[in-house]
Amino acid sequence: MKYLQYFGLILFIFALLIFTAMLGIGKITLTSDNLTVDDKQSHHKVAIMKAAQAAGLLNTPTSNVAFISQYKSVINSAADEIEAQAAAGLPEGVPKWEYTIQKWQKNNYISEAVTKGASGPVKDNPLTFLFLTFGLAIIGGLLFILPKFLEHEGIKHNGIYLNSLTKGLKSPLQNLYLFGTILGVLVYGFFKLQDFFWPLVTVVLGLLISYFVFIRERSKEHQPKKSSSPVNTGWLGLIAGTYMLTFYVLLYWAPAYIDNWVTMVNPVSEMLSGNGASRWFLYGMMYTVIVIVMGIRMLTKYQHNTYQKIRTASVMFFQTAFAFLIPEILVRMNQPWFDFKNFWPLDYDFFYSYNIKELSSSGSLGLFMLIWGIIGIIIIIPLMTYFMGKRWYCSWVCGCGGLAETLGDPWRQLSDKSLRAWQYERYIIHGVLAFAIIMTSMVLYHYFTGTSTILGLNVEGVKSWYGFFIGAGFSGVVGTGFYPLMGNRVWCRFGCPLAAYLGLVQKFKSRFRITTNGSQCISCGNCSTYCEMGIDVRSYAQKGQDIVRSSCVGCGVCSAVCPRGVLRLENSSGDIVERTDALRTIHITEDQIFVNLK
Amino acid sequence: MHIVIIGNGISGTTAARWVRKLSDHKITIISSESKYFYSRTALMYVYMGHMRYEDIKPYEDWFWDKNRIDLVKDHVSHIDFDKQELTLTQGKMQYDKLVLALGSKSNKFGWPGQDLKGVGGLYHLQDLQQMEEYSDGLQRAVITGGGLIGIEMAEMFHSRHIPVTLLVREQSYWNNVLPPEESKMISDHIIKNNIDLRLGVNLDQIKDDGNGRCKSVVVKETQEEIACGYVGLTAGVSPNVSWLKDTNLEIGRGIKVNNHLLTNQNNVYAIGDCAELSEPRPGRRGIEAIWYTGRMMGETVAYNICDQPVSYDPGIWFNSAKFIDIEYQVYGDVPATIPETMATLYWQHSDNEKAIRINYDKASQSVLGFNLMGVRYRHEVCEKWIADKTHIEEVLQHLGMANFDPEFYKEYESDIVNLYNTQSGKNLKLKSKRGLKRVLAFLSK
User: Fold this and answer.
1) Cβ contact (<8 Å) for B436 and A565?
2) Residue A374, H or E segment
3) CB–CB of B378/A566 below 8 Å?
4) What's the pLDDT band for A450 if we cut at 50, 70, 90?
């Protein structure tokens, strides 16, 4: 059985290698068919083809990376030439921005050439590559995972901190990685958005939050340190994190380089929606496959725990049906792509004018989607959260939560439990919620009044800032790339505006709490260690205090790992205030003292 | 006033925390084991890779400064009770009130070879370090002693795929505490986990490999020699008091204390594993070396130090443990041998990993104790039933209230009621199922 598992592991690694190597396979050939321009801009094509001819790129098969960089310089020199022509004199009645090549057009031209001009094994045999990557990875993963059903039931945490993949990083290295990534995103944001203002605003806000966190520490005259600085550096974890981080960077910001992956999943997309695949289809498909395979792993791990089994099945179902299949089928039926379980403000572009327009012009189903999205925010979410806590969404339904609970489970122990981390969390997550609300208000104001500048801020600028830093940078690059370094809920804990909203309801108006079982706690720390949200569960449990925390996603793992049966997730509004009081005396009551004094 | 606490385990730490809650006295905790308090019961999880050492410290390191509790990592070699003065390696220290929370030592019964390298108990951080040191390339470990620490140590080695032999003096695992059925269940569970369990045997001697390290043990009854690179001595613990034997402090097996946890010396208290109550409550022992009593004593002593005299009252007995994958909880009176005056209702699941036992008084029919294997019950509910001397049939009809298993877990309470009906010819129905609402109503009654 062990050898079967090793074989599975080898298959998986082989699939991963092919998946990675695919990016370098095949050639791209630029022909005049691979560039479509508006009639008014036919001079673009003339100039680009001329420049390509001069550079020797035309009709010459070139490898992906080389092609993109060469074609970029070709387009740039063509753009310069057109710029010079424009300076010499524009044609009658044509504004300059329409005559010259805009930045967004450059990206479109490159994408088109890469997609249309690709040739090679992936283009010829997409299904073979689909089998060699997705297929082998699934088979290998399952061969590794399924035999675990034969093991004894019980907690499976042996050796987690002895394993290079799961033990985390030493704190200097972790900080280096964290600050390196944030800096990288900021610098890239500056180049991408061609804007100083918003990256600068982000830096200032970050510094301000740090200032508040540290001021608060000083005012209490103590110096919180990390409660748990890892003792060893897990190099495999570092590699895994870097791989995922790179994947997101390519997916969001450099899609031209991953064209082969998109080509490979084309047949699947055509089968489902009738359309060719986009990078978002690739992403959705990968996401779903990972949630399912790693969900099966979660099922093997918690065979003895009915709550975990049902919850895991639920996230697998919602990801597969609601996030992946239903939207594609809707497209096949000529309806808008819509994920019924994704609500604003997590779905931050729900109120963008293009979305409102698309939904309101798509007949009664479109209108239903629009109303569903709004009812979700104002009625369904608060009501469900009142009855059972934010867990109904965060660890049962949500896609981000689904990935965290399945792929992310091996790293849940790495969340930072220090008080300092909690301070950062509160400022950042509520800050993001505030920004999501401000941005959406501006967007709606713009939608209804047509004013594009509000309080001196350009609405488009605010939107692209949010999309770049929060939508892509925070939830994708940092959120998932940091699984093996800071735990599996970095986005959910520090960034998700919907989690912040659900959390406020949970904190102030919900029947959900985690009860502690009398005095049975032995302060061992398993609950805190395995809390993916970085809640110091033990600090409550050892006081016999019921837990009501806005960040708790109700995954139930604290209760599962407790060796003394101390924690239970429960719903009831009774005595919730009294039982969550930190000063609930454990043992000695006032009556006893009184009796003795007499 | 300067309160000095020797020992930073759960008792000493709880005492310090409560003194701080109740007063502004200067507090110093001295320990030679570790600067910061850690959870002793969690040592096993560090070895097993579930947690890091940092994770088993219940408070962040800044906590002590913030609460003005001074931590001194040093060894106390002598106490002058008349001068109220301690001798440390770094010098002398005066105290106004002294709390002795000295903990235990692993028992060694004079076995030949018991001080060799690669032989040790599991109590201190240093024991863990030694286990770690000898684990590399270890072919087999032999553990002697069938109590809670013995099985923990077996589980530790087992988690690293090191073969383990567990020598147990009794005929069934921990049968001096567990009733026969539960004891059998745990014995079966140990064997199911491929741990080589030897029942009814004693350690004869530990052999030297010629370099001062153990190479094998000899079993007394069979004279069989078992090759091993590590020997775990887990035949219980006893109070760590031998270094105080030459002083005026009254010592029995532990440091003798009265109901206010005061020793025979002025301003000197003793709590936790090292304390021996002169007059334990009926049905209780003088020394109860468990986590929970240590914590209660810490709280009690703090009130006494802060001029709010309270007698030590451990309340209704409770304890818990985990035997590899089977959780165990006990509330109230569950003796290994059920006396004549006691009736017992024992239900066991067919998977041999879950069991519920309810003891009650034959004459008055009032409930006395609960033993849970692989099922979680609520402490507060069980305690209230026992304290109120509730009738067994009342308890059974509302037994669901006690259930503390996670949501969606199967509830077995109706099976237990049916079992009772079969045995007694009654026709009781289960009225309360699992759920918090009813529990809160019950508790506030």
Assistant:
1) no
2) helix A363-375
3) no
4) confident
Q: Which of B202, B249, B248 is nearest to B223 (CA)?
A: B202
CA A34 to chain centre: 33
Would an 8 Å CB–CB cutoff place B41 in contact with chain A?
Answer: yes
Does A231 sit within 8 Å of B52, measured CB to CB?
yes
List the single range of A203-207, A502-506, A559-563, B61-65 with lowest mean pLDDT. Answer: A203-207
A447: closest CA of chain B, how far (Å): 46
Q: Are A207 and A179 in contact (CB under 8 A)?
A: no
- Using a 10 angstrom Cβ sphere, with 0-12 exposed, 13-18 middle and 19 or more buried, the burial of residue A277 is buried
Residues A35-58 have a mean pLDDT of 87
Torsion sign, CA atoms A103, A104, A105, A109: positive
**What are the structural domain ranges in chain A?**
27-119, 170-253+335-510
The stretch A258-264 carries a mean pLDDT of 92
User: Does B23 reach chain A within 8 Å, measured CB to CB?
Assistant: no
Q: Listing from the earlier edge strand, what are the strands of the sheet with B2-6? A: B69-73, B26-31, B2-6, B97-100, B268-270
Measure in Å the smallest separation between the Cα of A596 and chain B Cα atoms. Answer: 6
Q: CB contact, 8 Å: B192 with chain A?
A: yes
CATH architecture for segment(s) B119-235: 3-Layer(bba) Sandwich (3.50)
- Confidence class for position A591, pLDDT limits 50, 70, 90: low
Distance from CA of B355 to the nearest CA of A (A): 15
DSSP label at A101? P
Contact A431, A494 (CB under 8 A): no
Q: Do B119-235 and B2-105+238-305 fall under one CATH topology? A: yes
Mutation test of the interface with chain A: which of B52, B258, B381, choosing the one with the most A Cβ atoms within 10 A?
Answer: B52
What distance lies between CA B348 and its chain's CA centroid? 25
Domain boundaries, chain B: 2-105+238-305, 119-235, 318-443
Nearest to A230 among B52, B60, B379 (CB): B52
In CATH terms, the fold of domain B2-105+238-305 is FAD/NAD(P)-binding domain (3.50.50)
State how far the Cα of A95 lies from the Cα of A516, in Å rounded to an integer. Answer: 70
**B250 Cβ under 8 Å from any chain A Cβ:** no
Are B329 and A153 inside 8 Å of each other by CB?
A: no
Measured in whole angstroms, the distance separating CA B120 from the mean position of its chain's CA atoms is 19
Q: What are the pLDDT digits (tens) for B368-395?
A: 999 999 999 999 999 999 999 999 999 9
Q: How many Å apart are CA B60 and CA A217, to the nearest integer?
A: 13
ipTM of the complex: 0.95
Q: Is B233 left (phi over 0), alpha (psi -120 to 50) or beta?
A: beta
Are A107 and A252 a contacting pair, CB within 8 Å?
no
Q: How far is CA A324 from CA A180, A221, A276, A373, B238, in A?
A: 33, 51, 15, 18, 62
Q: How confident is the model at residue B211 (pLDDT cuts 50, 70, 90)?
A: very high
Interface test with A, best of B260, B404, B412, B437 (most A CBs within 10 A): B404
Q: Kindly state the average pLDDT of the residues A441-451.
A: 91
Task: Report whether CATH 3.40.50.1820 matches the domain B318-443.
Answer: no
Predicted TM-score (pTM) of this structure: 0.93
pLDDT at site A597: 45
Q: Which of A304, A417, A511, A523 has the highest number of chain B CBs within 10 A, making it the mutation to test binding with B?
A: A523
Q: How confident is the model at residue A303 (pLDDT cuts 50, 70, 90)?
A: very high
Q: Could you tell me where the DSSP H helices lie in A376-508?
A: 381-388, 391-394, 399-406, 419-449, 459-465, 479-481, 483-486, 490-494, 497-508
A592 pLDDT above the threshold of 70: no
Q: Say if residue A571's pLDDT is above 60.
A: yes
**Tokens read off for B427:** 């026709």
